[in-house]
Amino acid sequence: MLRQRTKQQEVPVKISALAASLDEIPPLVDDHDDKKGMHTIRLDTDYDGGKPAFLAVVVLFGVFVPASFFGIANLFLSSPIDSERYGLEPPPKYESELLANTRLTSAERLYEGHVQGPRALTVHDGFLYVGTSDGKIVRIKDGKNETLQRRRAPCDVADREQQCGRIMSLKMNPDGNLLVLDAYIGLYLLNFSTAAYDVQALVSMPELVEGRRLQHLHDMALTRRGFVYFIDVSGRFGRHKRVYSLMSRPTGRLLLRGPTEGAAAQFLFDELAHPTSVLVSEDEDSLLIAEASRARIIRYWIKTQKVGEREMFADNLPGLPSVIRPSSGGGFWVGFSGIREENRFSLLDWFSSKTALAKAITKFVPMRMMSWIAYRSYGLLVELDAAGSIIRSLHDPSGHVLPSVDAIEEYDGFLYIGCESRDYVTKVKL
After folding, report:
1. pTM listed for this prediction
2. What's the pLDDT tens digit per position in 206-244?
3. CA 68 to chain centroid
4. Rounded percentage of the chain residues whose pLDDT exceeds 90
5. Which residues contact residue 245 at a Cβ distance below 8 angstroms, ignoring those fewer than 6 apart?
């Protein structure tokens, strides 16, 4: 019972804003004692006030206290990313050429259990070369396989890539030797002219390139004369922090190394938005570069009067492009590590216009959880024509067979597809 001293005039009763915001307010009973010149304001004893009181406690300790804590912490903690507002167009509808199907779901699985995380594929003289997550390079033909490279313990397992490396791309050079691009080690050559397939380092990750450190090598393209164009996903983050690169301002780089022995690598340009794949055109006048965080592919001219210029090739793609390879129809195959679909939540699209929120969330949400949210399991592969338009698509909506498409090679009427979270190569008849 709350007592207030007052004069004989009426005393107005004030109700707090918090109480007024509740769904139910206990009725007030005014007991006036004329003899004592006092007003007594009490809660009606017949009213059950437990529910509002409990709700107030929940609101206080469940909302206001944590919000205050995170608000204060947000002022003092630094975000690992430096994002910029760019905004993406609404994701495309999965209709017409993008209509969902089960072509990838029903694909044949090859060498299951023998090629862990086949992230790198290339075909040469009928042999399929596979780079795996446990450091092997396997050569396969007619069901028979030969291991060309194997890492020693403790690097012969898939979960030590930061210490031991991760093969990302394979190409056969004009001399018939195998070029290997490793996310952590660099660019090196596997010399087939020696009995032991000797390794020759071409670009070593610990070394600086033009005074700058490489972070996350991802893909390469090779010209007929032996020039190697390769991409560094980020100027700030290594592969193990790639989700931060996806959400940060563009710092990816394109590099070039000449074919001569001892040639030094050089940067061609910076500020690529999480580049994941590069492909040289058939006439070798230009490069196609996939920018995952912008869901697009750009063209970069390396010859003609446009040399050094960039232009849009394919925009507002249905996912985060991870690999580009030529198709026999004169177009290009594009695989995706995550998808964008109309009326479905996409972390990439959501953060593209909410930079402050992106910075705040990365201060508190673990990186592994961010990766889990960003990449939805859905296998998607599209074919683009020479002008960059989608002309067909292959899907695994379940994501069980191919949760992502990370490597593609077309050969002899079939597509060979690799996924870094599976232990087999997928084969699809065209």
Report:
1. 0.80
2. 889 999 999 999 999 999 999 999 999 999 988 988 888
3. 31
4. 59
5. 216, 233, 234, 236, 237, 251, 252, 274, 293
